[in-house]
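Input.
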Amino acid sequence: MKAMVLSAPNELALGEVARPAIGEGQVLVRVTYSGICGTDYKIYSGAIPVRYPRIMGHEMIGEVVEAGPDANVRRGDRAIIDPELYCGACFHCRIGQTHLCPNGMLLGRDANGGFAEYLVAPASHVFPLPESIDNQTAPLIQVLTTCLHAQRQINIFPGETVAVMGLGVTGQLHVQLAKARGATVIGITRSAEKRELALRLGADLAFPGGEEAIQKVRAATDGRGADVVIECTGMLPVLSDAIHMARSGGRLLLFGIITAKQGELPFYDLYFKELALINARVAKSEDYPNSIALVQRGTVRLEPLVSHVMPLGQLKDAIGMLGSDNGQRMKIILEHA
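Output.
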């Protein structure tokens, strides 16, 4: 089969590789569309080390080619693949924290992923897609599962004020999920276009970032601050603003991946305001049916978040776009021939 093969950092080319063989309890999928994200960029650049050669890609949908009798999909079904594999036997798996499995793997990082013609996955990780969900938006459901999993950690209640800092793809999904929970939602970003998009997707208010945003959020909440602040940028200065923006007794959801090993934060405010910090990592398989249902009902809209659709063969160019500071770019979807 044809696949985009990463042979070393920054060395990516179309190649011919063996088609994966299906084993017991597995499903063979012909990949039709896939999405790329920052993790792919970091693997490509070598910031996330992998064993070479590697086929990247962990946001993918396709058509079921072969499935066993115990699978919940059949040949010809459209399906989405959960790329987070787990052992099912360790302490974390036994208590339901499969996403924290120390023996787990991510397809596209620890094993070959979806930037190829075919992919094999456990039957438990393949979910049917309704016809009402478009092919070019369906790979975004994988991203939605991570946002849904994260918000389940903080229990947003109707009437609360939620500030979402950073309005890229995940920030826009958090806006929609928080609105669906009955919150008053404030979107925050320096991009005027992304603020406008957030308003179209349900945000009640949208402000540029920085000190001005902190003051405006306080003004919108009678001086208290936001009940919940969701930080989606992974940048320490933005997290610092989030601490100032939250009300006393509020909650901070650290969704953006912070890779900085040191930096300054207003630690005394964390203590004095008694803020709860909640971190979220990836998602669970159980988040897929719920995320699919949210999209099917129209509660979450994915189509405004797709800015580019490109052929799989242009993967290297698409990854290069992730490394540029382009405020107009949102999700890039790859179409497999």
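The chain has two domains: 2-145+283-335, 154-279.
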